[in-house]
């Protein structure tokens, strides 16, 4: 038994590096993380030569957010596609290139979904999250897996790494959340230190919500209707266990992740006889992931980073006309498996010049009980060669990624073509003055996304002749950072980036002979011109610490697909010209107050920018108040939130109404 | 300190900009009027309605009206005429017909028949019929086909039905179970014919036409025709023209002819792919947008069939090259008075379509932008207005 246990340990552990830990290599001088630092969104302006936005620590905790998706709404340059409610699908679109171009990394390893390429960020709890970062282009580190070079932008979710102070060997955080939508959400986090070398973390969370909320549609001098959203319930259980180890000149980390959920799909809210149809579509998900990484500096100049992962995803979708007469019968089961291994090597030639080579291999397989299904498999082999130089005030980083994709299907003759592509990235940063306050940065990146299994093979929709969808990004920006010794303002950071992106061979759905049958083709061309700007400041007035963050985004994202179309050059659906956010966070003697404001300007729901498709701006004001009380050895933290204070009735996605005013209470007991 | 002031004022300025572009009350969308042709008051036809389907799940079915007397095209009139009707016309318009003084629109994914006054387009009643598809009339009654039949043991084998509705009190009186996913219907004498598609049961398509005796309102027989049937058109010789969509692989779209006197399939026209058809005199106008999963492409064809001789008159009734500009022909209608005909282009299904009007010689007269997926058209006659 003991033997078996040990064996399973070895299997599970593998290997990992946390991004937190400062790498020992010469080039990677980024002070990526400092647990004690307090600011709202940390733009690692001084260190990062590529645009990045970070949300972490206490500030992440004090934000009014149900999930990762709610938190990243505060970043500039991003759009969340939100189907409403806690259970509604939420995906992120960075700089209007489409959600398929955003790589989502969980503790350093990409979350895969070969089936549809979509990662639902509404499913990631903030409960155990330590930081969330969004990189435009790629993370500007050299020492990383080849996958990190392989998407147009990257979202890094990093879970908590235990840090034990003094002689403590255990941390316990028991939490409970409740509030609107019949939310019940207990959680436990237990961190344990075995010895100086090994520690562990165990986190589990259960969540139930009925997903019910009222929404109103009204027209001036016309109808007004208030309905209740139904069948938006979610039942979810998440269990995560991690082990962290330190070795000489290195670290390892391993993680086991289990997710089990059942949810209803409320469907589009369209005109129908009120209360007549139940909308009973349901989905069950089971995800199992085991991943690990190992990092070690082997010689003074040479370091090695290994990552490995296995994931199994099961999804069951049921639409049953016995429960709702208006639907057709759908009962499909999908099983996806992914295996991944990566080896990255870094060689520092001298103090100013480093070279790295990362090689990844990934295998995907999909099984589904669809008619005429071909049972696809795919090998993806990635090799990335990267180098960085420092010339005095200039930093240059270049990388070249080679991607080779080998497709096959169990059913003969069904396979998509193989491919082999080189894609480059070039990043520059220049410090024009001797003082380290002002930097100019620029990057160019060309990369693509593969058609998903659904794009290629989904029965009656898929098109196996698809080509990959390419993006090119050009970015130029400047950052300014100043700290003040005296006065009310302690710190100010300003960041402005202007960019031009192109999406070519965009994979879009087109109708076939009628509107119930679509197929995928490479047709779209989108050009995006945008500006991201942010200002963050820290004030101190007596015992009040005030942090503010202001973000603004301008985007002109035009569809240039069909020159003969009347709508040629129209703004693409759901992209507002103007959007922004403001977060203000005040702390005072154990009290915390947070105010956040999000603004999404006018936009259109289709590329035909006409009044029928016009969507009004929406903006929400969220407030939260928290208090930390200390009893002997433990803390009690009580938080109350009010979201959408003005009860604005709005939609992010057409026919998917969002909730009005809602409240949440959180109680945490920390030992 | 000063810096803080500057910052604060920047903040206020930006807040000001945000507030300046605030939400207003949602306005009812007003119709768009376009003068597209010279007024023509000559014939008995007053104008026509065009029902735009709108993409599924977008609640964007809309109604347009063309008025011969003014030469004006009125786009999107329903919401304006009915500001009190919650959520406008609904989701996916699938058929439109006029009977008596009433205008009937089948709103497929809103699961009802929207009944309006034909003169004012004012809402009268929404008659709930889940997954309703097409409508036809005889005597006092309207007949509506629906996919949503009773669920027996296997939920995947769910038959459809035809509902019988009283056109005066607008109540559903009875239903008659037919084949799988029934679509268009025609009535000959006392018999109702409905084309069963079986589109939800891929690859086990239905291949029959159900015949209902209207007296007893019972299905009396099923005629074996061809897979995935869709459209029906009755000619002046008692023949029913039936379209088959095919399976999008090796079985192509075809046209069949049923003799309603014998209920026997008399013709199987292999070379007449058919997505939609409309009859004018002896001329059956047909277009086909045939998708193939083998070539991954659409093949678009046009034809006029002489129903008397059962011979193809022409393989292209659009004579001026406009057909090259039509991406997805979708709606088709011929004016029986002057022979001018109408073809709509659904384009990419998510942007507004175009309605093209052609003179009887196939030369385009005018075009106008419609709602999304312009599809189903019905003429209004002066007689109706005078009632």
TrEMBL record, chain A:
Membrane topology summary: Multi-pass membrane protein
GO molecular function terms noted in the UniProt entry: siderophore uptake transmembrane transporter activity
Localization terms from the record: Cell outer membrane
CC annotations in GO: cell outer membrane
Pfam families for the chain: Plug, TonB_dep_Rec_b-barrel
InterPro entries tied to this protein: Beta-barrel_TonB (IPR000531), Beta-barrel_TonB_sf (IPR036942), Plug_dom (IPR012910), Plug_dom_sf (IPR037066), TonB-dep_rcpt-like (IPR039426)
GO biological process, one term: siderophore transmembrane transport
Domain of life: Bacteria
Keywords: Cell outer membrane, Membrane, Receptor, Signal, TonB box, Transmembrane, Transmembrane beta strand, Transport
Domain TonB-dependent receptor plug: 47-144
Annotated TonB-dependent receptor-like beta-barrel domain residues: 249-645
Similarity remark: Belongs to the TonB-dependent receptor family.
UniProt protein name: TonB-dependent receptor
TrEMBL record, chain B:
InterPro entries listed in its UniProt record: DUF5074, Haem_d1_sf, Host-pathogen_enzymatic-act, WD40/YVTN_repeat-like_dom_sf
One Pfam family linked to the record: DUF5074
Domain of life: Bacteria
PANTHER family: DIHYDRO-HEME D1 DEHYDROGENASE (PTHR47197:SF3), PROTEIN NIRF (PTHR47197)
Name by which UniProt lists this protein: YncE family protein
Organism: Marinifilum breve
């Amino acid at each position: 038994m003991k033997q078996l246990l040990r064996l399973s340990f070895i299997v599970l552990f593998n290997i990992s590096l946390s991004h937190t830990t400062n790498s020992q290599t010469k080039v990677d001088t980024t002070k990526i993380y400092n647990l004690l630092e307090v600011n709202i969104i940390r733009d690692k302006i001084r260190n990062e030569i590529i645009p990045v936005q970070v949300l972490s620590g206490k500030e992440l905790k004090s934000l009014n957010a149900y999930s990762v998706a709610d938190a990243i709404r505060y970043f500039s340059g991003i759009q969340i596609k939100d189907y409403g409610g806690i259970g509604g699908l939420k995906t992120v679109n960075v700089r209007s290139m489409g959600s398929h171009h955003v790589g989502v990394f969980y503790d350093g390893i990409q979350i895969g979904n070969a089936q549809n390429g979509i990662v639902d960020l509404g499913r990631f709890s903030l409960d155990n999250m330590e930081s969330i970062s969004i990189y435009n282009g790629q993370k500007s580190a050299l020492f990383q897996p080849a996958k990190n070079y392989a998407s147009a932008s990257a979202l890094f979710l990093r879970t908590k790494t235990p840090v034990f102070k003094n002689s403590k060997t255990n941390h316990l955080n028991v939490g409970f959340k409740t509030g609107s939508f019949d939310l019940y959400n207990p959680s436990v986090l237990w961190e344990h230190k075995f010895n100086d070398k090994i520690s562990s973390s165990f986190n589990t969370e259960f969540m139930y919500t009925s997903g019910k909320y009222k929404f109103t549609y009204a027209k001036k001098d016309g109808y007004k209707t208030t309905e209740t959203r139904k069948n938006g319930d979610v039942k979810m259980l998440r269990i995560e266990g991690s082990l962290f180890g330190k070795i000489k000149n290195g670290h390892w980390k391993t993680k086991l992740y289990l997710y089990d959920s059942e949810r209803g799909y409320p469907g589009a809210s369209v005109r129908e006889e009120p209360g007549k149809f139940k909308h009973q579509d349901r989905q069950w998900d089971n995800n199992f992931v085991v991943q690990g990484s190992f990092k070690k500096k082997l010689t003074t100049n040479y370091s090695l980073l290994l990552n490995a992962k296995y994931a199994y995803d099961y999804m069951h979708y049921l639409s049953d006309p016995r429960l709702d007469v208006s639907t057709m019968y759908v009962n499909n089961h999908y099983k996806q498996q992914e295996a991944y291994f990566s080896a990255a090597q870094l060689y520092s030639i001298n103090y100013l010049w480093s070279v790295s080579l990362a090689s990844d291999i990934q295998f995907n397989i999909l099984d589904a009980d669809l008619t005429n299904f071909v049972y696809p498999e795919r090998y993806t082999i990635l090799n990335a060669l990267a180098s960085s130089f420092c010339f005095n005030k200039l930093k240059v980083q270049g990388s070249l990624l080679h991607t080779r994709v080998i497709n096959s299907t169990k059913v003969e003759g069904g396979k998509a073509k193989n491919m082999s592509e080189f894609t480059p990235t070039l990043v520059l940063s220049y410090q024009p003055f001797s003082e380290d306050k002002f930097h100019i940065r620029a990057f160019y990146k060309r990369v693509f996304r593969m058609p998903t299994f659904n794009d290629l093979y989904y029965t009656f929709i898929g098109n196996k002749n698809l080509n990959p969808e390419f993006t090119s990004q050009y970015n130029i920006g400047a950052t300014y950072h100043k700290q003040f010794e005296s006065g009310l303002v302690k710190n100010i950071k300003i960041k402005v980036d202007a960019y031009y992106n192109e999406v070519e061979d965009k994979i879009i759905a087109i109708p076939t002979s009628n509107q119930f049958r679509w197929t995928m083709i490479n047709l779209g061309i989108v050009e995006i011109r945008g500006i991201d700007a942010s200002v963050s400041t820290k004030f101190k007035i007596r015992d009040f610490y005030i942090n503010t963050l202001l973000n603004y985004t301008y985007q002109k994202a035009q569809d240039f697909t069909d020159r003969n179309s009347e709508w040629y050059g129209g703004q693409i659906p759901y992209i507002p010209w103007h959007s922004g956010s403001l977060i203000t966070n005040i702390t005072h003697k154990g009290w915390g107050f947070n105010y956040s404001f999000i603004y999404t300007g006018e936009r259109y729901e289709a590329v035909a920018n006409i009044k029928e498709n016009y969507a009004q701006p929406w903006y929400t004001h969220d407030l939260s108040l928290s208090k930390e009380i200390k009893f002997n050895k433990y803390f009690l933290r009580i938080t109350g939130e009010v979201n959408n204070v003005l009860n604005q009735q709005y939609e992010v996605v057409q026919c998917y109404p969002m909730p009005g005013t809602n409240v949440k209470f959180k109680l945490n007991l920390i030992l | 300190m000063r810096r803080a002031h500057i910052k604060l004022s920047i903040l206020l300025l930006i807040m000001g900009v945000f507030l300046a572009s605030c939400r207003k009350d949602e306005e009812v969308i007003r119709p768009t009027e376009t003068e597209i042709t010279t007024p023509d008051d000559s014939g008995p036809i007053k104008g026509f309605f065009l029902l735009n389907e709108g993409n599924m799940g977008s609640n964007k079915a809309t109604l347009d009206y063309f008025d011969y007397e003014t030469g004006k095209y009125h786009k999107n009139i329903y919401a304006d005429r009915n500001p009190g009707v919650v959520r406008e016309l609904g989701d996916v318009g699938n058929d439109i017909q006029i009977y008596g003084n009433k205008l009937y629109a089948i709103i497929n994914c809103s699961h009802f028949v929207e009944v309006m006054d034909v003169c004012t387009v004012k809402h009268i009643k929404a008659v709930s019929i889940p997954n309703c598809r097409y409508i036809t009339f005889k005597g006092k009654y309207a007949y509506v086909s629906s996919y949503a039949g009773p669920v027996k043991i296997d939920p995947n084998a769910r038959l459809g039905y035809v509902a019988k509705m009283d056109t005066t009190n607008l109540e559903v009186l009875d239903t008659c179970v037919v084949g799988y996913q029934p679509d268009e219907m025609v009535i000959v004498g006392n018999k109702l014919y409905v084309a069963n598609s079986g589109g939800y049961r891929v690859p086990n398509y239905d291949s029959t036409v159900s015949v209902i005796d209207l007296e007893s309102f019972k299905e009396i027989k099923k005629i074996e025709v061809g897979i995935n049937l869709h459209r029906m058109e009755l000619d002046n010789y008692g023949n029913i023209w039936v379209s088959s969509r095919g399976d999008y692989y090796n079985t192509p779209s075809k046209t069949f002819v049923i003799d309603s006197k014998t209920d026997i399939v008399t013709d199987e026209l292999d070379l007449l792919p058919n997505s939609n058809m409309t009859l004018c005199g002896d001329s059956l106008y047909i277009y086909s947008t045939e998708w193939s999963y083998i070539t991954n492409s659409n093949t678009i064809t046009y034809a006029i069939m002489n129903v008397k001789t059962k011979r193809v008159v022409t393989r292209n009734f659009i004579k001026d090259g406009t057909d090259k500009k039509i991406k997805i022909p979708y709606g088709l209608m011929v004016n029986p008075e002057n022979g001018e005909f109408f073809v709509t282009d659904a384009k990419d299904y998510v942007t507004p379509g175009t309605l093209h009007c052609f003179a009887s010689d196939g030369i385009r007269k005018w075009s106008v932008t419609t709602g999304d997926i312009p599809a189903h058209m019905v003429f209004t006659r002066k007689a109706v207005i005078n009632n």
